[in-house]
Amino acid sequence: MPLVLLLSSLYLSHTVKVSAVEVNTPEEIFVENGTDAKLPCTFTSVEVISSAASVSWSFQPEGAATPISFFYYFNGKPYPGKDIPFKDRITWAGDLNKKDASISISNMQFRDNGTYICDVKNPPDIVVKPGEIRVRVVEKGICP
């Protein structure tokens, strides 16, 4: 029995406190076809925002099985993907010091319908769950 207590105390003395980044996004937004959309993404973190903080955005088109990574922000610089479907339409709209990881997409089209995933990392904090926004592109004049 003393061996179990010794091992338990060794285990407990080496546990590391881990905190989490909490990512917040609206559940769903409606965007008129042909207009620009800001995809809001904010987060909370108990750690100071450092140069190691990063943001990645992915897109899962309706009916698709897996998301496609299309934007990365790291060390104060945006890295928009060069591939279709968002070529030359992504703008960084956030400010990590204000815990904002938002982006804007210009000229939204019906093919842009789907789920957008915002993933924030701020080491040593870890992300429990990325934020997800369902975007519905609708005809002009039909936004609720």
Protein traits:
disulfide bond; 6-stranded mixed β-sheet; globular; Myelin protein zero-like 1; Immunoglobulin-like; 144 residues; 41% strand; 3-stranded mixed β-sheet; mainly beta; 8% helix
Describe the fold and architecture:
By secondary structure, this protein is mainly beta. The chain has a single domain, classed as Immunoglobulins (Immunoglobulin-like, Sandwich), CATH 2.60.40.10. It has one helix at residues 2-13; strands at 20-24, 28-32, 37-39, 42-44, 54-61, 68-74, 77-80, 90-92, 103-105, 114-121, 126-127, 131-138. It has a six-stranded mixed beta sheet with strand order 2-12-10-5-6-7, with no helix packed on it. A hairpin with a 2-residue loop joins strand 6 (68-74) and strand 7 (77-80). The chain is globular. The chain starts with a helix and ends in a 6-residue tail after the last strand. The model is unreliable at 1-17 (pLDDT under 50).
Shape: globular
What's the CATH topology name? Answer: Immunoglobulin-like
What is the CATH class designation? Mainly Beta
Instruction: List the strand order in the largest sheet.
Output: 2-12-10-5-6-7
CATH architecture term: Sandwich
Short account of what is shown:
With 144 residues, the chain is mainly β.
Write the layout of secondary structure elements.
Layout: H1 2-13, E1 20-24, E2 28-32, E3 37-39, E4 42-44, E5 54-61, E6 68-74, E7 77-80, E8 90-92, E9 103-105, E10 114-121, E11 126-127, E12 131-138
Parallel strand pairs: 1-11, 2-12
Antiparallel strand pairs: 1-4, 3-9, 5-6, 5-10, 6-7, 8-9, 10-12
